[in-house]
Here is the input.
Amino acid sequence: MPPAPKLALFPAIRRALRFYQVCSAITGTFLLLLCAEMIVKYGFGYELFLGGSGGIAWWAPVIEGPQGHVSTGDGLNVSMTVLIVHGWFYVVYLFSCFRIWSLMRWPFWRFLLLASGGIVPFLSFIMEAIVARDVKRHLAEREADVALGDQLAGHSTLTSSIPIEGQR
Here is the structure.
């Protein structure tokens, strides 16, 4: 079992947890938008566009071309934008997973589970709740143990009566 994180790292762990929670929510939201976009595109044959010839927001049909599905719309392709934003933000999410994983000194399988939150729908929301609960509980327990140890060390009469070398 790897050693527990040091008390000096607790502020960094709290910041990493906050960063992970934000990244988890953003990544999970864009993953759900991406899933909805894929269902609409491949199931119903449409893509969402902003601007262009169809107005402010409009659905353009997708046709089957020689190289796969081809968009027929012009303007900003919202479907493609969601795909790109999710892909790039997944990299940020992976960094946040690595940061909390390394600071907490968890086993590697836990990092893999955290990373899968950005590719399995709804998993990032579930993992965010589990990680936040585990990290907060661990930090609270360690701080309580240290506080109790400090109290006990301050009240010990046994060690205060033992002379230290060089003192009389």
User: Anything to note?
Assistant: The radius of gyration is 26 Å. The CA atoms of residues 45 and 62 lie 5 Å apart. The chain has five helices and four strands. Strands lie at 46-50, 57-65, 68-71, 76-77.
